[in-house]
Amino acid sequence: MASKPTEEKAKQSAISYLRAWGESPVPPTIAATLITSLHARPLQLLPVSFAPILLASTFLNLYSYTTDSAGLTAAWSGLYVLLAQRRKQQRMMQKFGMRGIVRGATIGVCGINLLACGWVYTTGKRADEGEIAR
Question: Which pTM does this prediction carry?
Answer without folding.
Answer: 0.82
